Amino acid sequence: MRPETYDAPQKATADGKPVEAIEVDTSWLAILGAWRLVVADLALHFHVDLYDPAVLARPWPGIRTMIFSLFDQDTRLRRALTRR
Questions:
Q1: How far apart are CA 79 and CA 48, in angstroms?
Q2: Which long-range contacts (C-beta less than 8 Å, at least 24 apart) are formed by 52-57?
């Protein structure tokens, strides 16, 4: 079974040629390995404290969406999981 990942949309230049894709490891294994960055980036970008009981009581899909949206921005998590 393949772990769930998020594939960011591909970007293109003005002439329609694809921009060289930067590979970011969006597997859950990589995300959990950088969990401290997830916690820090969610607090910085969304003002969400993952350890707040009110947040822990929220449905998981909303939290998961916020985590994967960290790959759409210039975040510590994205930089840490970018393959060089």
A1: 20
A2: none
Both tokens assigned to 52: 């707040």
pTM of the model: 0.72
pLDDT (tens digit per residue) in 9-68 = 666 666 666 656 669 999 999 999 999 999 999 999 999 999 999 999 999 999 999 999
Q: In this structure, which amino acid lies at residue 61?
A: P
Q: Return the structure tokens found at 62.
A: 């909303």
- As given in the structure block, the two tokens for residue 65 are 């969406």
Query: What does the DSSP 8-state code read for residue 6?
Result: -
Q: With 0-12 CB in 10 A as exposed, 13-18 as middle and 19+ as buried, what is 20?
A: exposed
